[in-house]
Amino acid sequence: MPEIDPKRLDLAAEYRAKPLGRHSPELQALLNVMRRAENCQDLILVSVEPGKWVLGQRLPDGEPPRLFTDKVFNRVEDGEWEAFRRRWRALAGEELKLP
Amino acid sequence: MKTPSVVGYLDRLFAHAGEELTVRVSVLDPSRRYTAELVRMICGETGPKGPGLKEEKIAAGLAEQYEGIEQPTPVGSYAVVDRLPPLQAAEVSLLVWPTLPGRSAQTLVHLGALRLFLDASGAAALSLGEGTISTARPLRPCWWYRVTARYDPRTGAASVASSPFEGPHNDRRAASKGRLQRNARLNAPMHLAASPGPGGGTADHFYGKLESPRIRSGRLAAQWDFARGMGTTRIEETSRHRLHGRTVNAPKRAVTGSKWNGSIHDWRQDPSHYAAIHFHGDDLYDACWKPSFAIKLPRDLKSGFYAVKLRASGPAFYVGFIVSPGPRAKRAKLAVLASTVTYLAYANYRRRMTPGPFELAMGALPTVDMTDILLAEHPEFGNSTYDVHRDGFGVSHASIRRPLFNMRPGGRFWNFAMDLCLIDWLEHEGIAYDVITDHELHAEGAGLLKRYRAVMTGSHPEYYSLEMLNACDRFLAGGGRFLYMGGNGFYWRVTFPRAHPGMIELRRAEDGTRAWAEKPGQYYHATGEYGGLWLRLGRPPNALAGVGFIAQGFDASTYYRRTAASRDPRAAFLFESIGDEIIGDFGAWGDGAAGLEIDAFDDKLGSPRHALVVATSENHSNAFLLVNEEMASNSHGVDGTLNARVKANIVFFETPAGGAVFSTGSIAYVASLAHNGYDNNVARLTRNAVERFLDPKSFAVPPG
Fold first, then answer.
1. Is residue B166 part of a domain?
2. Is the ipTM reported for this complex over the cut 0.95?
């Protein structure tokens, strides 16, 4: 059973428009679910050079993060959005598609 | 996507013009070649909304290229006894409180060829050459045991036993006997908590506490009492032979021992309750790298932020340091007090790279760069005081004698990199300044500050010793002018252990916004000082700066709005040429001057009643949470959208001696100074404050 409502695309749209900063209570509730230890996928943003970011995954036992180098972002906000999409997919069980 | 392939460190965090610096370098690049430059740092990497990296190469007679080696780093604490009489049949015993049994073999005592250890299963075992006997019963973590081994070189007869201390759920005794090779020599040195390793190093480090090791052999009865010599590197032997030893890599002392039962909390009251030492395989006091080259600093070198910029393949590695005025140097009227103690507390911060729900506290993904990734690839460079050791216990020590990954202009926009925003602004404005350091403040006291008419802090002067705090108080009592240019300052107590120059000690005691919590009974530092928040030690930051830590969030910043009090004639100088009601709705960090960690006025916590709160932030995000030390118990409604206390205050007040204090209450503030080509109301407000604070005309506390 999905832990988030896949029909709430309005919340996804709100996040995409402003991933950092003040959110509506409903979006914040959704983010709190996504960011729980068991749901957050231990994601991290890694600056591979100034102004270039990739997502990574934090690993246990002192292992260095694993870098996902297939997508390079020019803005932190774009990396945050990709993390949101990954978590949506895992929790809603379907790809996030916004118009 | 490369990491730096050369790293280094200095033997200090600050130096004076004309002095010589020893640079220690380890080259990871297979070519073993690298370049080095001396650079003056003017601005760090600010991202697209700031001016970006600015550095100036300084001629210092350095070679065009250097050849180096990859230097080993002897990580892991232990103790060693260098002198012992010849031993025959011997009984070795000690008290053991393992914290990570069953992960790998861990040495308890290594004496000549004889090794008493916890085997890979966590059971007490004894080995000699190829032979091993084991109790085959793993010790439980965090429980006291007496572990005893006997060996007779004439016959090879050997035994090992582990006996748990009594308790409601205690384990049971386990023992094993057997024969090991004969005629082994039991000679010095004796290692505790590690074995001698290849190349003069050590291996198989023990995680946990050891107490009261004993050797009985013939007429010798030697016993080491770790309750003696607290705060030193000595381990004292109590027999007439005085077979004292020493600790290496600063294991934690003043920790609860086998006798501790909660009745004592100050180790000085009864040190016998604190007769243990906590060893960690990831403790590092001194990397002991060989010197690589020296830099003679030019005699006319301007005071400021500097770095030795090392480069092989991949990005440069910056070895940051401060050049402060020497004893005979002509001083500027204004000093920037670089937060070198806080830089050190944060150095080698690994926690951001470990799994966990950090965004619930931060409101954004953790961010790192390729230099941080290099740190993650090298656990031997030690931890920050924000990390926990591999056994889960908090890191209390931070030393300068190792590569420091945050004394640089890039990476996290924080500490050294963030404070460069202030330097960049001062340079742009043409305001003459010196840079002095926390470390000098601790050593020299108020005399250092009294050389200046005004002193401005960096963006986050969080870690303070009692000596540093007293020096600031005395500076104000003598009429000094103080500009607190940040947030969450004067927060944690740190101490400077005399036996470990260049190291600070921290105990995250009682309460506070903590990366980890100190264990019960261990709130007193090895110096004897009670650790924790200055707020809880009766010296709240509000009493010094007019504001104290109130909330934090790491997603976005916001702005301040002027208050009615900003119209008070006493504050007129601050707002000269500023017509705006909104201050700082821009900036290189989070698009606002009020963000990251923020402070507020609170007269119940000592903010002076006559202080003027001239601006207050508003509209903080959901990520900003009221700090837990401001609540008696947890509750809903503590975030920036719901809680009226979540705000930063800009505060001004005069002192009775004719001085004054200006506090910005936000780490992000300095990242707004450069906005719009340095023409903005944050820069104007700061300029107005600095100009008046440098004017010798006295301030006066208002009547009443």
1. yes
2. yes
Best mutation target among A14, A18, A34, A44 (most B Cβ atoms within 10 Å) is A44
What span, in angstroms and rounded, lies between the C-alpha atoms of B536 and B606? Answer: 13
Q: What pLDDT, in 10s, does the model give residues B341-354?
A: 999 999 999 999 99
Q: Which helix (H) or strand (E) holds B692?
A: helix B681-694
* B344 phi/psi in degrees, rounded to 5: -70, -40
CB pairs under 8 A between A and B: 102
Residue B113's domain comprises 78-279
**Min CA distance, B359 vs chain A (Å)?**
6
Which chain A residue lies closest to B376 (C-alpha atoms)? A64
The answer to whether position B695 is within a domain reads no
Q: For the segment B78-107, what is each residue's pLDDT rounded down to a tens digit?
A: 999 999 998 999 999 999 999 999 999 999
Q: Is A89 helix (H, G, I), strand (E, B) or coil?
A: helix
In angstroms, the CA B542 to CA A46 distance is: 37
What does the angle CA A10 – CA A16 – CA A19 come to, to the nearest 5 degrees? Answer: 115
**C-alpha to C-alpha distances, B30 to B6, B35, B67, B311, B316, nearest whole angstrom:** 10, 14, 11, 13, 16
Query: Residues of A with CB below 8 A from B314's CB?
Result: none
Helices A9-17 + A76-92 axis angle, to 10: 170
Question: Does residue B28 lie in a domain region?
Answer: no
For residue B511, what are its two tokens? 């309460």
